[in-house]
C-alpha cells in the first residue's frame, strides 16, 4: 500500500500544524476528544475555506455575471477564479469545460438527462459497476427506463476489484456509455480507469468518471485519462457543501442540450424561440451557489499547497496501520482488500451489527459511518447488510487509530 518513497513524503507533513487549521477537530464529543473518521462522507473545512465564506458575505455578496457594479464584478471574478483553479486542478483544456453543479449527484443527473436522453436509443447499453454509489446507478436507470435501453453491470471480485475480463465481455457496439467511479466510497478500491476508458473508447462509448472519492486523494489529469466526463464534490475535498463541478469534453458539452432552463443559461429569449448561452453557462441556469463555489477555490489551493502526493502518502500510512491493527481484532472481517485503495477501511464484526458498533464508538467520541454507504448492490454482492467504515484524511493521526482500536476492543468484549 505504501511505497518507501511515499513514506518519506508522509513524514514531510506537519500534521499537528495542519490540525490547527481545522477548528472543528478541537472539541470533545461525549466527553472525549473528537476522532473524526467519516471523511469519505464529508471532510472537515480548514480556516481558509471558512474565512473565504465569511469574507464573501461580509465584503462582496452580489449576484454574478449580470451586474456592472463593483461588488457584482468582484463576486463574478472570484466565482470565475474557481473555474480557472478547477481547470488547473484536473488539467482540463479550457475553463469552458468546467460546469459548476451542486456536486457529483447533480453532475451525473445532468449528463444522464442531457446526454443520455438525447443520444441513447432503444436497445443501447449503459455499463456501470457493482461498486457504484446509488448516485451513479439511479440516474442511468431513469434513462434506461425511458429509452428502453439496457443497463449492464461490471461485477467485482472478492477483494473488491472490478473484474476487467467480465468488463471486456460486456463491451460491444451497443455500449454507448460507461460510468464508473475512480475510487469506491465503500471499499476504497482505486479502479484502473485509464484502461476502462481505453476499452470503452475502442467500441465508441463515452465514459463518465465519478471522482467523488478521488478529488482529495488522487491525481486527476483528464487529458491523460482521456475521459469524456469527470466530476467531484467540494465537500469531500475540504470545501463547502452544495458545490462541485462537472468536467466535460468541449465537443460533447457543445452538442448536449441544456439540463435546466432559466436565467443565465440563455443568449436571447422570445416567446417563439430561445437561444442558449455559450459554454459553460448553458448548463448553469439560475443564481448559482456563489459563496460556496468561491470558497471551493481555497479548498483546492489548500490541497495543492499541502501537496497531493504528501497527503496521499500520509493517508496510506494511516490506512496501512489501521488495516494491520483492526484486522487482528477478534471477529473482524475486512470488506475490500484491493492492493490499491484510497484511505477507506470497511469491516464487519461477527455477531455485532454495524449500527451498534457505530453507536458505541460515538459514545467514545469516535465518528465512523455504518450501513450500506449508498451502495446496496455492493452489499448484496457480499451478502451483508452493511459495514463499519473508517475513512482517513490529512489531519488524522495514528494516535486516533489507536483510539479506534481500543474502542473496538471494548465493543467486542462488551458484546461477547
Ligand atoms: N459517488 C461516490 C463514490 C460518493 O462517495 C458519493 C458521496 N458519498 C457520491 C457519489 C455522491 O456525492 P454527493 O453526495 O456529493 O453528490
From TrEMBL:
Residues 35-404 form the Aminotransferase class V domain. Its EC number is 2.8.1.7. The keyword GTP-binding does not apply. PANTHER family: CYSTEINE DESULFURASE, CYSTEINE DESULFURASE 1, CHLOROPLASTIC. Belongs to the class-V pyridoxal-phosphate-dependent aminotransferase family. Csd subfamily. Catalyzes the removal of elemental sulfur and selenium atoms from L-cysteine, L-cystine, L-selenocysteine, and L-selenocystine to produce L-alanine. This is Cysteine desulfurase. It comes from Chryseolinea serpens. The lineage of its organism: Bacteria, Pseudomonadati, Bacteroidota, Cytophagia, Cytophagales.
Amino acid at each position: 500500500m505504501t511505497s518507501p518513497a511515499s513514506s518519506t513524503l508522509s513524514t514531510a507533513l506537519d500534521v499537528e500544524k495542519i490540525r490547527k487549521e481545522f477548528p472543528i477537530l478541537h472539541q470533545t464529543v461525549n466527553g472525549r476528544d473528537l476522532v473524526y473518521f467519516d471523511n469519505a462522507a464529508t471532510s472537515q473545512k480548514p480556516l481558509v475555506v471558512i474565512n473565504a465564506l465569511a469574507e464573501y458575505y461580509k465584503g462582496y455578496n452580489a449576484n454574478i455575471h449580470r451586474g456592472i457594479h463593483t461588488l457584482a464584478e468582484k463576486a463574478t471574478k472570484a466565482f470565475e477564479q474557481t473555474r480557472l483553479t478547477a481547470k488547473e486542478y484536473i488539467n482540463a483544456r479550457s475553463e469552458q469545460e468546467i460546469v459548476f453543479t451542486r456536486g457529483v449527484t447533480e453532475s451525473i443527473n445532468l449528463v444522464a438527462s442531457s446526454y443520455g436522453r438525447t443520444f441513447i436509443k432503444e436497445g443501447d447499453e449503459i455499463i456501470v459497476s457493482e461498486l457504484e454509489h446509488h448516485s451513479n446507478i439511479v440516474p442511468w436507470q431513469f434513462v434506461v427506463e425511458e429509452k428502453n435501453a439496457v443497463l449492464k453491470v461490471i461485477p467485482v471480485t472478492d477483494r473488491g476489484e472490478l473484474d476487467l475480463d467480465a468488463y471486456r465481455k460486456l463491451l460491444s457496439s451497443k455500449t454507448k456509455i460507461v460510468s464508473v467511479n475512480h475510487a469506491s466510497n465503500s471499499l476504497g478500491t482505486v479502479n484502473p480507469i485509464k484502461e476502462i476508458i481505453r476499452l470503452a473508447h475502442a467500441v465508441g462509448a463515452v465514459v463518465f468518471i465519478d471522482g467523488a472519492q478521488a478529488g482529495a486523494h488522487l491525481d486527476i489529469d483528464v487529458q491523460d485519462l482521456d475521459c469524456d466526463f469527470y466530476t467531484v464534490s467540494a465537500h469531500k475535498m475540504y470545501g463547502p457543501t452544495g458545490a462541485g463541478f462537472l468536467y466535460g469534453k468541449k465537443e460533447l458539452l457543445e452538442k448536449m442540450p441544456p439540463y435546466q432552463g432559466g436565467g443565465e443559461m440563455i443568449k436571447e429569449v422570445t416567446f417563439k424561440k430561445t437561444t442558449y448561452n455559450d459554454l459553460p453557462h448553458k448548463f448553469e441556469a439560475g443564481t448559482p451557489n456563489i459563496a460556496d463555489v468561491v470558497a471551493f477555490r481555497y479548498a483546492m489551493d489548500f490541497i495543492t499547497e499541502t501537496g497531493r502526493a504528501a497527503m496521499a502518502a500520509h493517508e496510506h500510512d494511516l490506512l496501512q496501520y489501521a488495516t494491520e491493527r483492526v484486522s487482528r481484532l477478534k471477529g473482524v472481517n475486512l470488506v475490500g482488500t484491493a492492493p490499491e485503495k484510497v484511505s477507506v477501511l470497511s469491516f464487519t464484526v461477527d455477531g455485532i451489527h454495524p449500527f451498534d458498533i457505530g453507536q458505541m464508538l460515538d459514545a467514545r467520541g469516535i465518528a465512523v459511518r455504518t450501513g450500506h454507504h449508498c451502495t446496496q448492490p455492493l452489499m448484496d454482492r457480499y451478502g451483508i447488510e452493511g459495514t463499519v467504515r473508517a475513512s482517513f484524511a490529512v489531519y488524522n493521526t495514528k494516535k486516533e487509530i489507536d483510539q479506534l482500536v481500543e474502542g473496538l476492543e471494548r465493543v467486542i468484549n462488551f458484546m461477547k
